[in-house]
């Protein structure tokens, strides 16, 4: 019975998201009313409020689900495996983002000011940094700046890719991202060695 209930909730949420994506083809998000969204989704207004507080809550959930999926891509990996296979992991992430490009665009367009979608790469980057266990003091300004630089840089690459209609392959974008992250870490290691 619980399984059936969960399926019904998933279906309702999928209908709401589909309706939102449909409406966004003709309007900006701040022009869409809950009434219009629920009518398009063919649900009662109360049903909407059981799951969400407002339209932006839908975006937060989409982002959270995408971040969780990306994190799961590395959950079973040891840190050394990630270090040795960074490009392969990033290729999986870029493949996923390509498959979910409509949702990815939604996050980048409307959640950008809140989160910049950085959660999509943050979990991988945290784990990758842990492959250099005694090198970084995570409380240091150097680490924090490096972390911010790399995560926002990686999201800049995703944004660029999205704004150019995903023309480059996920494999090429993963290779570029891995190269830049690796060079960024090397620079930080050199800086740590001087300090």
Short description:
It comes from Blautia hansenii DSM 20583. The chain is an all-alpha fold.
Low-pLDDT residue spans:
none
Radius of gyration: 19 Å
Structural class: mainly alpha
Instruction: Let me know the average pLDDT.
Output: 82
The number of distinct β-strands equals 0
Largest sheet: none
**SSE order, as H and E?**
HHHHHHHHHH
In whole angstroms, the N-to-C terminal distance is 60 Å
Helix content: over 70%
Number of domains: 2
- Strand percentage, roughly? under 5%
Q: How many H/I helical runs?
A: 10
Keywords: DNA-binding
Protein name: Transcriptional regulator, TetR family
Pfam families: TetR_C_8 (PF14278)
GO molecular function, one term: DNA binding
Give an overview of the whole structure:
GO terms for molecular function: DNA binding. Residues 10-70 form the HTH tetR-type domain. Keywords: DNA-binding. With 195 residues, the protein is mostly helical. 75% of the residues lie in helices and 0% in strands. It has helices at 2-23, 34-41, 45-51, 55-75, 79-84, 86-99, 101-110, 119-129, 141-163, 170-194. The chain starts with a helix and ends with a helix. The mean pLDDT is 82.
């Amino acid at each position: 019975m619980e399984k059936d209930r969960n399926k019904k909730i998933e279906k309702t949420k999928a209908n709401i998201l589909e309706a939102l994506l449909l409406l966004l083809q003709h309007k900006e998000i701040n022009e869409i009313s809950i009434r219009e969204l629920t009518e398009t989704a063919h649900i009662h207004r109360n049903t909407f409020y059981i799951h969400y507080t407002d339209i932006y809550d839908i975006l937060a959930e989409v982002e959270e689900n995408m971040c969780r999926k990306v994190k799961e891509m590395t959950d079973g990996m040891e840190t050394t495996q990630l270090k040795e296979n960074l490009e392969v992991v990033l290729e999986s992430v870029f493949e996923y983002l390509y498959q979910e490009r409509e949702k990815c665009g939604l996050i980048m367009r409307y959640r950008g000011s809140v989160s910049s979608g950085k959660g999509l790469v943050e979990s991988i980057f945290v784990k990758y940094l842990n492959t250099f266990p005694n090198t970084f003091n995570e409380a240091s300004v150097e680490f924090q700046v490096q972390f911010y630089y790399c995560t926002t840089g990686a999201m800049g690459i995703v944004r660029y890719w999205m704004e150019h209609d995903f023309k480059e392959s996920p494999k090429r974008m993963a290779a570029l991202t891995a190269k830049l992250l690796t060079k960024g870490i090397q620079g930080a290691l050199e800086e740590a060695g001087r300090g």
